[in-house]
Design brief:
It is a single chain. The protein is mainly alpha-helical and 90 residues long. It has a domain at 32-87. 70% of the residues lie in helices and 0% in strands. The chain has helices spanning 5-24, 32-41, 48-58, 62-71, 76-87. Helix 3 (48-58) packs across helix 5 and helix 4 (62-71) packs across helix 5. It is elongated.
Length: 90
C-alpha cells in the first residue's frame, strides 16, 4: 500500500525539523567550574588560561588540557583529575 505523497512530505518535514533542532541545541554543559575549582585547590590562581585549558577538557582534548594546566603549574595528577571533571557533564 502506497502512502500519499502529502503524508510523506509531512513526515519528511517533521524529521528535518527535529533533526535541525537537535543540531542547533546547545551541547550539555560540561563542568568548567568544577575543573577551575580543582585547579584553585592546588594553589594555582584561576585565570583565562586556566579556563581555556578546562575548555579543552570539555571538548575531550584531555591531553591538551592536562598539558596546558601542568604548564600553568598544576601538578600532573590534579591536572588530569580536573580535565576529566571538565569533560563530565554536571
Amino acid at each position: 500500500m502506497r502512502m500519499p505523497a502529502r503524508f510523506l512530505g509531512v513526515l519528511t518535514g517533521v524529521a528535518v525539523a527535529l533533526g535541525g533542532a537537535a543540531l542547533t541545541a546547545p551541547a550539555a554543559q560540561a563542568d568548567i567550574p568544577a575543573c577551575t575549582n580543582m585547579v584553585q585547590q592546588t594553589g594555582v590562581g584561576v585565570s583565562d588560561a586556566v579556563t581555556a585549558a578546562c575548555t579543552l577538557g570539555v571538548h575531550n582534548d584531555l591531553r591538551g588540557c592536562v598539558t596546558a594546566l601542568t604548564e600553568l603549574g598544576v601538578p600532573g595528577g590534579a591536572a588530569n583529575g580536573a580535565c576529566r571533571t571538565a569533560a563530565t557533564p554536571p
